[in-house]
Automatic annotation (TrEMBL):
The chain crosses the membrane at residues 6-24. InterPro entries: HD/PDEase_dom, HD_domain, HD_GYP_dom, HDIG_dom. Residues 52-174 form the HD domain. It comes from the Bacteria. Gene3D superfamilies: Hypothetical protein af1432 (1.10.3210.10). Keywords: Hydrolase, Membrane, Transmembrane, Transmembrane helix. It comes from Clostridium neuense. This is HD-GYP domain-containing protein.
Amino acid sequence: MFLEPITLQLILPLLAILFAIYTYNKSKTKYDDLLHMVNCLINTIEAKSPVTYMHTERVCIYALKLGKALNLSKKDMLILKEAALLHDIGKLGIPDKILEKPDRLTDSEFEVIKNHPRKGYNIIKSIENLKPVAELVLCHHEKYDGSGYPNKLSGDAIPYLAKIITIADSFDVMTSRRPYKDPSSIEIAISELEKCKWTQFDGNMVDVFIKVLKTDKDIQNVMNRSFPSNID
Ligand SMILES: [Fe+2]
């Protein structure tokens, strides 16, 4: 029996991921191959959903700018970069008709979307050296007041680096165009971030991020970008 197109949409990217994990786990030079592995996963996101890929690239740039302003160590900056680039990888397991829907999602469609942090965690956790990244992928939709998902973590129970990705992610959602909404200006996004201090976000991190937004001359260029490029 032929598979339904929707089943193929889900199976093909997941097969690509499984092959990449198999190749990685057989490799003898694991450290060097880790970056190749991450790139392979990112390329899979790009092939399946260019919109998701561009979102993750911008989120990565914002997260690294905030991480730098928070004086993260080199090691944490690397984990943050990998996690920001892979935070939405679980969307590979979401049907296209929901992921690429040009209108606002219904409540039941949103419930399906809410599975993506756990789907992403399950993909990434099978790679030994990406376990810290998997935790961040799982927690990137948790909110400071405990109203997020999937585990309703609150305050400092949310991993520090995941809280950075949450702020970067939300800023990009606000300032990017969607078929059903115009992008918010940087000023409106800043006032939204202010409003959500200590409810959705860690307030101290928001203060630092707003300073970055007001002083970093590159922010507007990042907001406007809709093409892939290398991130240093
Ligand atoms: Fe997400």
